[in-house]
Amino acid sequence: MAFQDMMPILPEIILLVTALVVLIVDTFLGDKRWLTWVGMLGVILAGGATYWLALQPAADFQGMAVSDAYTAFFRLVILSATALGLLVAMNWLDAHGEQQGEYNGLLILAAIGMTLMAAATHLITVFVALELLSLSLYILAGFERERATSGEAALKYLLLGAFSSAIFLFGIGLVFAATGALDFAGIAQAASFSPLFLVGLALMMVGFGFKVAAVPFHMWTPDVYQGAPTPITAFMSVAAKAAGFAAFLRLFVGVLGVEKTVWVPALAALAVLTMTVGNLMALRQVSLKRMLAYSSIAHAGYIMVGLTAANTTGVAAVLFYLFAYAFMNLGAFAVVIALEKQGSGDVQLSEIRGLSRNHPLLAAAMAVFMFSLTGIPPFAGFFGKFYLFQAAVQANLTWLAIVGVINSAISAYYYLNVLVQMYMSKEEKPPMLAWRPVLGLATLVAALFVIGIGLFPDFWLQLAKAGMKVVLG
Question: What is the pTM (predicted TM-score) of this model?
Answer without folding.
Answer: 0.90
